[in-house]
Amino acid sequence: MYKKIIVPIAMDQLEHGESVLNIAEKLIDEGGEIVLLNVVEDLNAYAQGYMIVDFPLEMIEESRKHAVRTLEALKTKHGIKGRIEIRTGGAAGTINALAKEENADLVIIASHRPGLIDYFIGSTASRVVSHCPCAVLVDR
């Protein structure tokens, strides 16, 4: 059904990521591509004005390495021939930018039940749905 599907996976929500990956496997065309994406949040961008201490670059780099190892293991486990993208930035904006850059047909994103904070700043899934240049499937 789809030639290119982007599957964002948060390292702290791997069980949701596997669920979404299973959906992507069922919807991808033969010869299509699944792009496993992890966005490493740039904590220093959020810390400006609130904290004096910067987060060490090593911490961000270690997060990127952990994400690569984890997504490679998922790829192997599911036998996916797609590829991995690790980006740094805000989650929703980065997901939407990659969807546009890759001319993706579909983004499949996991969602959780909103907590109080989500009502104030909005959830990542909500911001992806609102601004994504392609179809979005939200798995709850």
Automatic annotation (TrEMBL):
UniProt-listed InterPro entries: Rossmann-like_a/b/a_fold, Universal_stress_UspA, UspA
Organism: Sinorhizobium terangae
Protein name: Universal stress protein
Record lineage: Bacteria, Pseudomonadati, Pseudomonadota, Alphaproteobacteria, Hyphomicrobiales
Positions of the UspA domain: 1-138
PANTHER family: STRESS RESPONSE PROTEIN NHAX, UNIVERSAL STRESS PROTEIN UP12
Family: Belongs to the universal stress protein A family.
Gene3D superfamilies documented for this protein: HUPs
Pfam families tied to this protein: Usp
